[in-house]
TrEMBL record, chain A:
It comes from the Bacteria. This is DUF2849 domain-containing protein. It holds the Pfam family DUF2849. InterPro entries: DUF2849.
Automatic annotation (TrEMBL), chain B:
Keywords: 4Fe-4S, Heme, Iron, Iron-sulfur, Metal-binding, Oxidoreductase. Residues 52-109, 341-393 form the Nitrite/Sulfite reductase ferredoxin-like domain. Pfam families: NIR_SIR, NIR_SIR_ferr. Its EC number is 1.8.1.2. Residues 119-272, 403-541 form the Nitrite/sulphite reductase 4Fe-4S domain. It comes from Sphingobium subterraneum. This is Sulfite reductase (NADPH) hemoprotein beta-component. InterPro entries: NIR_SIR_4Fe-4S, NiRdtase/SiRdtase_haem-b_fer, Nit/Sulf_reduc_fer-like_dom_sf, NO2/SO3_Rdtase_4Fe4S_dom, NO2/SO3_Rdtase_4Fe4S_sf. One of its GO terms (molecular function) is metal ion binding.
TrEMBL record, chain C:
It comes from the Bacteria. This is Uncharacterized protein (DUF934 family). It comes from Sphingobium subterraneum.
Length: 95, 543, 146
């Protein structure tokens, strides 16, 4: 599956496309399929997201999980600061 | 230390308003991200993995107590309660909002600080020896030259869109504590016939093509240094490669032209520049120099240290350096506690260090390229009281220059360029060598970790270096041996195939065990490596 | 071509500039255009007959044109010096400092923003070719400069 992600223009927060808006939690993300580029253009133009791009992910029982470690860390928060994590349940290194 | 006059203050204040305007236009959609990016970068604002990151300049690593306190206040007010001291002697904050950035700059301006040119393809913060002004071995304080260069480079109109970033370091000792020859321009102040001038090295750097800078000129006097450096930059701006960002640093230009041809072109340009009278009068450097005059040292102070507390004695031996003035000491505060994040300090710790500087160090601190803090003016008689307060705040690891005093970039935990995490590896190594008790036995060993080829963690210059790479989507770590960023500058050599996170820790234990078995006399790890060569180290790792 | 931003007292040249190669050939053109990779010093022997030098900025991040401009002014060129191409409003102050006196931007420049940007800084740290007195000279009015 494909997810659309970026950072909030004003706050810089990592955000994920939910189908109708943006969420801080990757679990809320939806598969954008082939629509990623079109969404990216319209959402960037609307200034709701900065530096957006499409990534690969897999569906899991806990929700979408990015395939690449960099995106997993974006979804979880820094692995060395559990106190600042968004979600410590996200596996960083693939099993 | 330097303090602003009305001109400096007005320029920094104007910058705040300029950036406020630019950020507002970006938020209003008048600027695209492509257009805004170079503007925010020249003001130190990155978009990192989790948020915007703001890098604040600490010119040549020198700070006053109130400036340090403001850094703590910003961490508390605008960030998540901490900051990260960097290998460029700066501090960066990881969780900044674009909406707040101009307000932060306004706060910084109240204590004569800014984020000007802490990123982008321009002349970056000038770095210097962290012991400047107090080192027993320096011929003069290098910071007046660094301040002269800071002012000259600030908003330099010709060099705002260089092929790539540009870093300058200034030292004035034969002992190099600032990795001077690994800079785009390194200046070593030397004395000739009673006159101080600069030896100029151009084209050093780390990154994916590390190079030790060749000497381009053996002596430039203070009344010509600006026009000479201007000539160095103009040749680079005109002829540095712009076709490939990985070949755009000046080291590639100097390497491809050859040092002789680059020198010839610079001399030609310099001859023209001199005629234009671009250099400030010598009175200007004298004015700046007056700001760096020695403080009114007390005399007749005792140099005796009560070593009855063994933990304190250990810290004195490891973290306190000789001061040029009898009765005073240079104190290194290690930001490398076992289990901590190299270079990170909490708002509380930053504010405490500000207090301690005011009470014990004539109101001054330094940031080192090894991501530690220095209190440069501590009375030797105060060491015990100071240590007691540091220790209570977790700021007294006695590990300066030991294997646990690791330089590490933020790596994939924070950085959008990284390929692998650096911090967890640093933590595992620190734990392994603390648990085994070998840290002290090994002695000086500079271990440096970068999470990608850009080498912010200076891995090429580590006695032991680690480079994180992405191997088919998993983190992998290459090991390098034999680098140095000091006066014996050299570049490390990769041992061979890389390791996973645990494997790299094991490999480091093997090479240090070999060193302990083979060392002669008081050889450091680096000396033994240089004597034996790579082969036996490779053998113990892979054999 | 879009609107030209003019900082000169006379009107911008209307002649269409020729390439450096054409100019250096048997041309009697009085307007020439130089690209980022071209050596501005090639024009120095003929500055007297030039009314317009247009310096091209194909991308705003390519800063070679700043050196070209300053070199021409340092050599005494007083004719029109035009920055053309990807010229953005936040670059105008630096362009003025290296000697540009007209701009031909691809996209129109917001004059109100430009005027604000041009008046933000009362002082500058470097001596360039725009005649502004650097702060070091103001600090030492009595000193013999240079």
């Amino acid at each position: 599956m494909k997810l659309l992600t970026g950072n909030d223009l004003a706050s810089g927060d990592v955000i994920w496309w939910t189908g109708s808006g943006w969420s801080r939690h990757v679990a809320d993300a939806v598969d954008v399929g082939a629509e990623g580029d079109a969404l990216l253009a319209s959402e960037s133009a609307a200034r709701r997201v900065n530096a957006a791009y499409v990534i690969d992910a897999e569906a899991t029982t806990a929700g979408p999980l990015p395939l690449h470690i960099k995106e997993r860390i974006r979804a979880s928060g820094p692995t060395v600061r559990a106190d600042l994590a968004i979600n410590t349940e996200i596996p960083i290194v693939k099993a | 230390m330097y303090s602003y006059d009305k001109f400096d203050q007005a320029i920094v204040n104007a910058r705040v308003e300029e950036f406020r305007d630019q950020a507002r236009r970006r938020l209003a959609g008048e600027l695209t991200e492509d257009q805004f990016k170079p503007l925010r970068l020249t003001n130190g604002l990155y978009l990192q993995l989790h948020a915007y990151m703001l890098r604040v300049a600490v010119p040549y690593g020198t700070l006053s107590g109130p400036q340090m306190r403001m850094l703590g206040s910003i961490a508390r007010k605008y960030d998540k309660g901490y900051g990260h001291f960097t290998t460029r002697q700066n501090i960066q904050y990881n969780w900044i909002k674009l909406e707040d950035a101009a307000d932060i700059l306004a706060d910084l301006a109240t204590v004569e600080m800014h984020a000007i040119q802490t990123s982008g393809n321009c002349i970056r913060n000038i770095s210097a020896d962290q012991y400047a002004g107090v080192a027993a071995d320096e011929i003069t304080d290098p910071r007046p030259w660094a301040e002269l260069l800071r002012q000259w480079s600030s908003f330099h109109p010709e060099f705002s869109y260089l092929p790539r970033k540009f870093k300058i370091a200034v030292i004035a000792s034969t002992q190099d504590r600032a990795a001077m020859r690994l800079h785009d321009i390194g200046l070593e102040l030397v004395e000739r016939d009673g006159v101080v001038g600069a030896r100029v090295f151009v084209g050093g750097g780390m990154g994916r093509t590390p190079m030790v800078a060749p000497e381009i000129r053996d002596f430039v006097t203070e009344d010509e240094i600006i026009s000479y450096v201007e000539a160095c930059l103009r040749v680079y701006n005109r002829y540095g490669r712009r076709d490939n960002k990985y070949k755009a640093r000046i080291k590639i230009l100097v390497h491809e032209l050859g040092a002789d041809e680059y020198r010839r072109q610079v001399e030609e340009e310099f001859a023209q520049m001199k005629a234009l009278k671009l250099d400030p009068p010598v009175e200007e450097l004298a004015r700046i120099r007056a700001h760096f005059a020695d403080p009114a040292y007390e005399t007749g102070l005792s140099d005796t240290i009560d070593r009855s507390d063994p933990d304190f004695a250990l810290w004195v031996d490891q973290n306190v350096a000789a001061h040029k003035q009898p009765g005073y000491s240079i104190v290194n505060i290690s930001l490398k506690p076992v289990g901590g994040i190299p270079g990170d300090a909490s708002a509380d710790q930053i504010e405490l260090m500000a207090d301690l500087a005011e009470r014990y160090s004539l109101n001054e601190l330094r940031v080192t390229h090894a991501q530690n803090i220095v209190l440069p003016y501590v009375k030797t008689a105060d060491l015990k009281a100071l240590w007691t307060e540091l220790d209570a705040a977790g700021l007294a690891p006695a590990n300066l220059d030991l294997i646990t005093d690791i330089i590490a970039c933020p790596g994939l935990d924070y950085c959008s360029l990284a390929n692998a995490r650096s911090i967890p590896v640093a933590q595992k190594i620190a734990k392994r060598f603390t648990d085994s008790g070998k840290e002290k036995t090994i002695g000086e060993l500079k271990l440096k970790i970068s999470g990608c080829i850009n080498a912010c963690g200076h891995h090429h210059a580590g006695h032991i270096g680690i480079l994180g790479v992405d191997r088919k989507g998993t983190e992998n770590y290459q090991l390098l041996l034999g680098g140095s960023g000091a006066e014996d500058a050299s570049l490390g050599t990769i041992t061979g195939p890389g390791f996973d996170e645990n494997g790299i820790v094991d490999a480091i234990e093997k090479v240090t065990d070999l060193y302990l078995a083979q060392r002669e006399g008081d050889e450091r790890f680096l000396d033994t490596y240089r004597r034996l060569g790579m082969a036996p180290f490779k053998e113990v790792i892979y054999g | 071509m879009g609107e030209i931003v003019n900082f000169r007292e006379d009107a911008p040249a209307s002649e269409v500039p020729v390439s450096l190669e054409a100019f250096l050939g048997a041309s009697n053109a009085t307007a020439v255009r130089i690209e980022p990779g071209e050596d501005a010093r090639a024009l120095l022997p003929q500055l007297d007959r030039i009314a317009l030098i247009e310096v091209s900025f194909p991308a705003f991040g390519d800063g070679r044109g700043y050196s070209s401009a300053r070199i021409l002014r340092e050599a005494g060129y007083t004719g029109e010096l035009r920055a053309s191409g990807d010229v953005l409003v936040d670059q105008v102050p630096a362009m003025r400092r290296v000697g540009f006196d007209t701009l031909a931007p691809n996209a129109p420049i917001d004059r109100a923003v430009m005027d604000r940007m041009l008046t933000l800084y009362d002082d500058v740290y470097q001596k360039t070719v725009d005649g502004r007195v650097p702060v070091w000279a103001k600090r030492h009015p009595e000193a013999a400069h240079g």
